[in-house]
Design a protein that fits this description.
Helix content is 45%, strand content 21%. The radius of gyration is 31 Å and the shape is elongated. It starts with a helix and ends in a 16-residue tail after the last helix. The protein has a 5-stranded antiparallel β-sheet, sandwiched between helices. The chain has helices at residues 2-8, 11-59, 85-88, 102-114, 160-170; strands at 62-67, 73-78, 120-127, 133-143, 151-158.
Length: 186
């Protein structure tokens, strides 16, 4: 029995298994370091992309909102009217729609839900952060089946100046355009 014990626990018996274990540990450490370097690169890419999206949104004239099929705000991705997640999330969309435009909005929303493959676009007045009514062109797209979105997307653009120009052009004795909206081609 003593011979077996001496054989199992002699320094020579440790050399090869210990060397193997050390080699395996070094290989695993190298793998983990390579994986960490790859994750750092991925994180840098994600941060660069996030900064790019933020820069584009900050210069965008379009707003992007996510809502539920029950017309409740989920998230304000970007608001051209200054609204934020804090003052929108959980509220009914209709609280931000002008009372005279709510029926039109509801009808368009119902049309979208009954035919989710087609986007619906309407013009309506929406309350901004200060409670002022601004004309918006709102395109509604059903993306409930998209696992990355799972919401109805409202893309909107403020068209208040264009609406003012159209109203001015409709009055016979008024000049054709207000002059400040060359981009609207009034």
């Amino acid at each position: 029995m003593r011979k077996l014990h001496d054989f199992l626990f002699t320094p020579e018996s440790f050399e090869e298994p210990a060397a193997n274990t050390i080699l395996q540990l070094r290989e695993r450490i190298a793998e983990l370091e390579a994986e960490n370097a790859s994750l750092r690169q991925l994180e840098e890419t994600v941060q660069r992309n996030a900064r790019l999206v933020d820069a584009l949104f900050n210069k965008s004239h379009d707003g992007f909102l996510l809502i539920t099929p029950q017309m409740t705000f989920l998230r304000a991705i970007h608001s051209v009217l200054g609204n934020t997640d804090e003052n929108l999330a959980g509220r009914s969309v209709l609280t931000k729609i002008h009372p005279d435009d709510r029926a039109q909005f509801t009808k368009a929303f119902s049309r979208l839900l009954s035919n989710p493959s087609e986007a619906v676009t309407i013009e309506c007045r929406v309350g901004n952060q200060n409670g002022e009514w601004r004309w918006m062109e709102v395109e509604m797209t059903d993306m409930l089946d998209d696992p990355d979105v799972q919401a109805i997307v409202l893309n909107n653009r403020e068209i208040t100046e264009r609406k003012k120009c159209q109203e001015t052009a409709a009055i016979p004795e008024s000049p054709r355009c207000c002059g400040s909206c060359l981009e609207h081609k009034c």
